Amino acid sequence: MKNRSVGFRFVGSRDKNKLLKGLIWAYFFLLLFEGALRKWILPDYSTPLLVAREPIVLCILFYSVYKRLFSYNLFSILFIIISFVSFIVAVFITHQNVVVALYGVRIFFLHLPLMFVIGNVFRFNDVVKLGRVMLWLSIPMTVLILFQFYTPQSSWFNLGIAGDLGGAGFGGANGFFRPPGTFSFISGTVAFYSLLSCFVSFFWFNSKYINRILLIASTFCLLIAIPFSISRTLFFQFVLCVLFVLFLLMRKPKHLFYSFFLSVFIIMILFFLSKTEFLGTAVDAFITRFIDANETEGGLVKGVAGNRFLGGLLEPIKASVDMPFWGMGVGIGTNVGAKLIGSTDSFLAGEQEWARIVGELGFLLGLSVIFLRVFLACKMIFSSLMKIKKMNYLPWLLSSYGFLLVLQGQTAQPTNLGFLVVVGGLILASLKSDSLRIRKKAKRPGYIKYGVQKLYFK
């Protein structure tokens, strides 16, 4: 297949990857609308739909192995080894519940290796295509959360899992609740708009890839969604994305002038909109939630940076002292695992991600998983930084969300796990673009091995 935009030809890759790409897209769409199925469309099957993506993951992994497209690297192999060891330990030593153990090891055996398959199968253009889809979806998603914000929890828009009339909204402020969108919980909404902010930023740097009207509309959807979400996490993730953008702008001073006036224009429009009753109500609720939560947690720096981030990094060390060497058993720290063993405590092994991993897997396996995630996150962001020199900004902007997600993102919650896998895979896929652009300048044609694909360059 000839691609004149970058000047290379893929030999036999279109038919080989078509089915795998389709399955990856199915995984992505099911991630976005899995909550909608559990709340509105198939509420009677909400429990089995919790693992609706697992059959797709199995198909992707088995087919990628069959087609020799599975990524056999240090990370995927060690994650699979850890899953086998943790399963044996859980079944024969710790909680001895096979179902709980299977539910826990699926994280390491299925989903995390899928990240590398996505990075191996997807190309730069596929990542850009997914970004366009995100921008299109941001419009109906924003309309939905507006309805959820202003309608009571008993309305159809706010139905909970399995059609629960109690509502799916989570505690907010001023009598309003944090809207979950098409997801089962507010964390899904936060993840969606966090990823959207990465693509919106990228398309502003590369507007040739997107319709300008769509980009402007999606930008306003992103900015409006922040107060309506009543989520500090989304706000701080947006600020982090802005900091990554500013880093790029400092390297290109000529863009600072244009970006300054564009930012002033957007801020002025949002300022006038905030004075209206429609948006002003959401802004007031967001500010109230922001102030109340900061006071409760001891201030902005101590509560958010200290307790949530630094505390999450240091807590595993404290937890490992009191935990058995092999931990409490894989899967027991998840909500599903806790319910299956009859416990009412959803955080048996710890609430923060690293503490839960050590609590489940123990000192040796738990710290091994943490080390792998730290190594992978650092490798991603360092590689993304190197791509900036070659004018490929996409992996760097995706890392504004993906770095912390890979480093410390929750894997016990299915939606968060899904976004970790997708975003991590997109970063790995977007890193491949500039290698192709450089190698196309070879003086004579030939086959060059790139991953597990063969590219023919003119």
Sum this structure up briefly.
This protein is mainly α.
Report what the structure shows:
Mean pLDDT is 82; it is low at 1-15 and 435-458. This protein has a four-stranded antiparallel sheet with strand order 1-2-6-5, with no helix packed on it. It has a two-stranded antiparallel ribbon with strand order 3-4. By secondary structure, it is mainly alpha-helical. It has 16 helices and six strands. It is globular.
DSSP E strands, number: 6
Strand content: under 5%
Helix tally?
A: 16
Low-confidence stretches: 1-15, 435-458
Q: Using only CA atoms, what is the Rg? A: 22 Å
Overall shape: globular
Share of helix, binned: 55-70%
Strand order of the largest sheet: 1-2-6-5
Number of domains: 2
Largest sheet: 4 strands, antiparallel
> What series of H and E elements makes up the topology?
EEHHHHHEEHHHHHHHHHHHEE
**Global structural class:** mainly alpha
Mean pLDDT: 82
Alpha carbon gap, first and last residue: 13 Å
Any key phrases for this structure?
disordered C terminus; single chain; 4-stranded antiparallel beta sheet; 16 helices; mainly alpha; disordered N terminus; two-stranded antiparallel sheet; 2 domains; 458 residues; 5% strand
Would you spell out the secondary-structure blueprint of this structure?
Blueprint: E1 2-3, E2 8-10, H1 13-41, H2 54-66, H3 74-92, H4 98-121, H5 124-150, E3 170-173, E4 176-178, H6 186-205, H7 212-229, H8 232-251, H9 253-274, H10 277-296, H11 300-322, H12 335-340, H13 353-388, H14 394-408, H15 414-430, H16 433-439, E5 446-450, E6 453-457
Antiparallel strand pairs: 1-2, 2-6, 3-4, 5-6
